[in-house]
Amino acid sequence: MFQSFEAPAAPPPVAERVAALRAFIAKEGLAGYFVPHEDEYQGEYMPASAERLAWLTGFTGSAGAALVLAHEAAVFVDGRYTLQVRDQTDLSVFRAEHLIETPPAIWLAARLSSGDRIGYDPRLITLAQMRRFEAACAEKGALFVPVEENPIDRLWTDRPAPPVAAVALHPLELAGRSAAEKLAELAGALAAKAVDATVLTQTDSIAWTFNIRGGDVPHTPVALSSAILRREGKPTLFIDGRKLSNAVRAELADLAEIAEESALAAELAAIGRAGGRVLLDPQATPAAVARALEEAGATLVEGTDPVQVPRARKNAAELAGARAAHRRDGVAVTRFLAYLEKNAPTGTLDEIAAAQALERFRAEAGAADGTPLADISFDTISGAGPNGAIIHYRVTEATNRWIEPGMLYLVDSGGQYRDGTTDITRTVAVGTPTAEMRDRFTRVLKGHIAVATARFPKGTTGAQIDVLARRALWQAGLDFDHGTGHGVGAFLSVHEGPARISKAGTVPLEPGMLLSNEPGYYKAGAYGIRIENLIVVTEPEAVEGGERPMMGFETLTLAPFDRRLIEPSLLDPAERQWIDDYHQRVRETLLPRLNGDDASFLEEATKPIQGATKSLEH
Q: For residue 611, what pLDDT band results from cuts at 50, 70 and 90?
């Protein structure tokens, strides 16, 4: 199994750990200390050795931060984790705050006095984040000061060792472009910006650039490393040499200089002494990197990580791999839905058993297709009833719930195959759903269809698309507290930038970008609903009678929706037709790959929608 369901042996001693941190704060003459979720590589998903926020607070979500002051402390999470954080941390020590509505820098500013010094580790926050805190502190006459030794690293006596998983080469037939070609294109981009170099610290950017994959991070095939790309001359890859076999090292040595990670500081200093102009992305570059360059004499030129957009625009080989992965994954998920149909109504299936069965179906589908499952793409969200309302719920032996008649069951999962990364959510009724469940599910489905069928011109951003997913919910006074979609990598991170479909999605969508389409609705203490497919932005096409070519989305995910949860009277004819057409494509694609009860289930699950239409306007 790629996922563990073990519950912590005991709640972490949050009060004791905060007290130890406060002792450090007092000794250093600080008024407080900032603890971000991110590691030195600014990753969302990290090895166990980098989970400093979880060690301090008990909160294990993939986004958040904490601020510890002398007499007050807060942990900040976004809307996905508002329920989870209350279950995991000691609320007598930490206040739970909303990361977006009450940003940490704003919260801090309201509590500062002139002369206060707030400490932070400059390796763990970006240049942009550091500036926000510096500005907030300056308004109150306070200082945001780097602390060279991270106190948590010293206090965390049983901290796991950093990972040293082996690096593998990503084959050209799956990558679509050689690493040499990518590096040449990136060197050209640096020349166009009149800079000498750029520093990469995001591990998926490095993996994509050098056509390598690793195993340092759970469920994300990357190797912890950094790189300097140059306008002229070889780039340098900074990586623990123990991760490289002789064959991999020889291949990489043709492309780059290979150095240990500890050599990065000296190389940054050398660039600075030479008066180099260095492109840095303030949203991605650790403040420590920027400071080292500036102190050594480099000129910083701010701009976007030059790898982000090329990585996000999947090429023909990457898209072919994604389609193949989704056909394979569709078989696994459909077999799982058939398994649920048979076993869930008996009341003998729990959340852990369901997640284990889904992983088994994925492994079998990969083996049958000759592309073994390399990993799952994240811990499966297997939520029955009220657990489904916890947006990023992670089932453990302590929280495991039986899946019983009358419930909704939400399962959000994905696979990492060598040719593609998948991410799919389905919500299933166990027994007969209520009228309210059907209404909410159908409104979520209407938003999903609105995104899937959108046509839009060049320059359109995810924020402009996001509203389509919410319209039917808003009309009923409902909403969901997460983005509608995130980028997805090509056998890389299941959460990939820079594009996203959300209220904060400001990056224009471009052909080849692979995104999720996942509106939802969550009734705390009762049930959760989410419907997720992966979609790819299509090339602009002329519209009959139109004046501008329009892009759109191609849906890649293949698995049926639960028709018992669809209220046909809330759908217009075009929406019903979209569902029928989608189900027909699912049936035609997957049925030849299924047999027996699984095939019978799919035939029944993809029958046409019946029912009349009524308006949602009243």
A: low
Task: Please indicate, yes or no, if residue 29 is contained in any of the structural domains.
Answer: yes
Confidence grade of residue 442 (pLDDT, cut at 50, 70, 90): very high
Place of tokens 């450090």: 24
288: containing domain: 168-308
The CA distance from 476 to 458, in Å, is 32
Q: Is the CB of residue 102 less than 8 Å from the CB of residue 83?
A: no
| Cα–Cα distance for residue pair 484/500, rounded to 1 Å | 8
| Domain-located, residue 191 | yes
- Specify if 545 maps to a domain: yes
For 190, phi and psi rounded to 5 degrees?
A: -65, -40
Q: What mean pLDDT do residues 371-384 have?
A: 97
Query: Which residue is it, tokens 């982000």?
Result: 308
Residue 342 backbone phi and psi in degrees, to 5: -80, -40
* pLDDT of 617 strictly over 60: no
Give yes or no for residue 612 having a pLDDT over 80: no
Same domain, 199 and 322: no
Our count of domains for the chain comes to: 3
Q: Are residues 133 and 78 in the same domain?
A: yes
DSSP H helical segments within 28-123, as ranges?
A: 52-57, 82-88, 104-109
Pick the closest to residue 313 from 495, 539, 512 (CA basis).
512
For 400-410, what is each residue's pLDDT tens digit? 999 999 999 99
Phi/psi at 78 (5° precision): -90, -175
Q: Which of 269, 292, 308 is the endpoint of a domain? A: 308
Q: What is the pLDDT of residues 558-596, one digit of tens each?
A: 999 999 999 999 999 999 999 999 999 999 999 999 999
